[in-house]
């Protein structure tokens, strides 16, 4: 009867009233250190990558073509090929060994990057990092293991914060230490530093990642308890309440079965998982597009649609963005989630894409008419502020993905999400940098076609975001 179904759903989805569980400080600190090291290594190359590609002489001296060779997408393509396997392995082998493999891969790849002298050597180093990039999904899985519904907003609020710290220090290190024989000739005058002008920032960031490897090895301890997985055939797993086996057996003894171990992959394609991952993908696509487009816009000469800034200034700007993001997260994210809910926080953050992509052509037009005036710098600050608000969407969507995943298959669901996101992040930078160059070369909409395209795509992303439920799902056992 319809009434019976409504009563059953109400029982299964009844609110949980529990005191906030304290976060395990040591294990949380280890996860946050890993989260800091990842962007520290990956984003330290952004201030000088366009200059490096230009110096390799593969553009034929045409700066308008640099965007075509911004090769960050290769990392995400190789990551997409392996991240699901690493994440599924973490469900069976544990989180710690997979985290160690990921840190080893990041250390090796960044050192190889600094020692590369050809374009294809750079490509190989980034592909190596992508293939061994196990941590991007496992970190979120480990955070889900450490938290529950009562403290998850606080736990996931830390992830963007420490990511912002790494994202601010990385560009600062990359921009400050690149070409040390030019900037600090009294300390780095040897031939080695002339032959490998970008090795120093890679050495510094690689050392931090290696330190994280040893911290995880000696201090990270994961739960060893066996997880019992309730599986209900007539209802989506997202309707089953966390940690209440007796209630489930009493309410529906004929339809609830219990089994151990990760669920088969095909059983994870349910609406809560699909809608959560889909929104994560659109957010990551737009965010990665912005991350690739911003340094390219800052580096390109004013006459071809950029601001013509040197690497050290680009590093300072990207560092400021990271600091702003971190401060905004620590001050407001958990409060926003408790007051407005995960859905509203996600949608509000995603909406910032619309003004962000509008401001790029405005900054360019002002710079062309009056140079780098105070108005341009104010608008750059607006872009950074809106980007900080945009990043609150990540914490919110992480919570949707975590709540949609059965506990025994959290690694697999996070692997699915990161595989999808890696593909989106591979397309985003390649599409944005290439479309930037294409727009400028052919003077499409005055060279500003790229921003119109991503403005429209942001609108479609918002249409998908409103499909998220008003209330987040309960944890699935």
Overview of this protein structure:
- The protein is built from 20 helices and two strands.
- With 477 residues, the protein is mainly α.
- The protein has one domain: Growth Hormone, Chain: A, CATH 1.20.1250.20.
- A two-stranded antiparallel sheet has the order 1-2.
- Helix 2 runs antiparallel to helix 7.
- The longest helix has 33 residues.
Tell me briefly what this model is.
With 477 residues, this protein is an all-alpha fold. Helix content is 70%, strand content 2%.
H-E string: HHHHHHHHHHHEHEHHHHHHHH
CATH topology: Growth Hormone, Chain: A
Strand order across the largest sheet: 1-2
Helix percentage range: over 70%
- CATH architectural name: Up-down Bundle
Percent of residues in beta strands?
under 5%
Largest sheet: 2 strands, antiparallel
SS-based class: mainly alpha
Pick out its properties:
mainly alpha; 20 helices; Growth Hormone, Chain: A; two-stranded antiparallel sheet; 70% helix
